[in-house]
Automatic annotation (TrEMBL):
This is Transmembrane protein 236. InterPro entries: Uncharacterised_FAM23-like_TM (IPR020394). Keywords: Membrane, Transmembrane, Transmembrane helix. It comes from Triplophysa rosa (Cave loach). PANTHER family: TRANSMEMBRANE PROTEIN 236. Coiled coil: none annotated. The lineage of its organism: Eukaryota, Metazoa, Chordata, Craniata, Vertebrata. The chain crosses the membrane at residues 9-32, 44-67, 88-106, 118-137, 264-284, 323-342.
Length: 351
């Protein structure tokens, strides 16, 4: 009987291969149906279907399988830390052809003057969902699928101090009195050698002790009892949520490209090109410091420009909320990364 790791590996590989093949077959079949409608020929339909089968077989044998073998067996990419080869191969071999076929479908229908298929929801529901699945599989691959999440939190959260024991802290004045020091001098001077002393020090210590005790008791009480299940947090679940949230802006842009007015216009080309450039962010590892700047340059800034243009030409084909999101993300990045380094804004006491 195969071990759990073997079953997990087979499951992941089958899912990734399905995400590679299914979008290509579905999109190509829809394109073949479109060609049959435009050309009124069954031969064209079967030629396109045969071309899709040949493409998938060639990609699988000459690119996907060797890449998987190099990644899993020879560990040729074991030293790669800032980019991921498997998502890169996926967006080049699957996502790019799907987007190219969808754009070509628009051009074919416009030239023929016959509007047959806008591939409604297909780019979003199938192509991008398959991309998200591949991203999730690559990120969850090192993690176990069974067991508690306590042992995984160190991989997702920064380590920090943990309050485990509280005890009474002796003030500086009390230590001086115990050592025979001059208590009158301590009471007269609230700050001595950079430390609090006297009644100011005692009050500060007592206040800190009460605050720490209250926070510790509140945290302990809030994570116990019949409602303690609402405090449960699993980093594997957080991974799924973060992966979908990461792609919402690109999903909305691709969805907007499927509207009738945009799809049968020349604006479908820049929309899908910008969406694909945004998709290339999946190649960067999730914890890479390059991801923040690449996200602004490849997504928020170009998306903001194209959305403003589309709203000005076609009306509200996209929610204003995404325009505001692009403005806020781009503006905050420029402000906190560049403008705060200016002499005028480099003062900690201003705000």
């Amino acid at each position: 009987m195969p071990s759990g790791k073997t079953v997990k590996l087979i499951l992941y590989e089958v899912l990734q291969f399905a995400c590679l093949c299914v979008p290509l077959f579905v999109v190509m079949e829809r394109f073949a149906s479109l060609i049959r409608f435009v050309k009124s020929s069954d031969t064209a339909y079967w030629l396109v279907v045969a071309a899709s089968v040949a493409y998938v077989a060639s990609v699988t044998l000459f690119v996907w399988v060797p890449l998987k073998y190099s990644t899993l067996k020879t560990q040729r990419f074991s030293e790669v830390t800032n980019w991921r080869p498997v998502p890169l191969a996926y967006v080049v071999l699957s996502t790019l052809p799907c987007f190219a076929i969808i754009i070509s479908s628009s051009k074919v229908q416009v030239d023929a003057g016959a509007y047959y298929d806008r591939f409604t929801e297909l780019p979003v529901s199938l192509v991008l969902f398959s991309l998200i699945c591949v991203d999730i599989l690559e990120r969850i691959r090192p993690l176990p699928l069974t067991g508690q999440a306590n042992t995984l939190e160190s991989d997702f959260e920064m380590p920090g101090p943990v309050l485990t024991h509280l005890q009474q802290v002796t003030s500086v004045s009390a230590q001086l009195q115990a050592n025979g020091g001059d208590s009158d001098t301590s009471l007269r001077s609230p700050v001595q050698n950079g430390s609090l002393s006297g009644r100011w020090g005692d009050a500060d210590v007592r206040s800190l002790s009460r605050t720490s005790s209250a926070a510790y008791l509140y945290s302990s009480h809030s994570r116990s009892g019949p409602l303690r299940f609402i405090w449960i947090r699993d980093p594997r679940h957080d991974l799924f949520v973060a992966s979908f949230v990461f792609w919402f802006d690109t999903v909305e842009l691709v969805r907007m490209a499927g509207t009738y007015s945009v799809y049968y216009s020349a604006w479908v080309f820049p929309v899908y090109i910008l969406a694909y450039l945004s998709i290339l962010r999946v190649v960067i590892t999730p914890n890479s410091p390059l991801l923040a700047s690449i996200s602004v340059l490849s997504q928020d800034l170009p998306f903001l420009v194209v959305r403003i243009c589309l709203v000005g030409i076609f009306g509200y084909v996209t929610p204003v909320q995404y325009i505001l999101k692009n403005i806020l993300v781009t503006g905050s990045f420029v402000y906190f990364v560049f403008m705060t380094k200016l002499k005028l804004l480099n003062r900690g006491s201003m705000f």
